[in-house]
Amino acid sequence: MLQPPDSSQKPQANVNFSPTKTVGAPLEQATIGRSLVIKGEVTGSESLYIDGRIEGTVSIAENRVTIGRNGTVNANVSAREVVIMGKVTGNIQCTDRLDIRGEGSLTGDVVTQRISVEDGAVLKGSVQVRSAEQQKSDKAGQAKANEQPKALAANA
User: Which domain holds residue 56?
Assistant: First the structure.
């Protein structure tokens, strides 16, 4: 049966409850493992971690490309953000930032908004730091320049 509450016990009114932390969706990231070699064009819409070897082009427009400590890339890389811990030979174009860690090396030209080069990192090539507006106007100009020769070729 139900019993009346015992008036001798005081209810605990000031109990601190910490809310449970909600875990978001796991970060989608593709991985090219240590033993993999890819020759050609790599494109995608998710972040990419490279611990193997790539020769050709890498284009991950809206995400991050990370070259791991064991990664070797002989390619032009285009991404929102690039992190280099391995070895890259080729040009880098970032819409946000380039981060070359202490054990990383880059031989090639860079176009980015922000750049970070740690002590011990190697960077051989030119660096152009541009604002977002400059990069957008350059892309529009390049697109027009690329269309004109095609039109001229069609008329010939």
Answer: 29-131
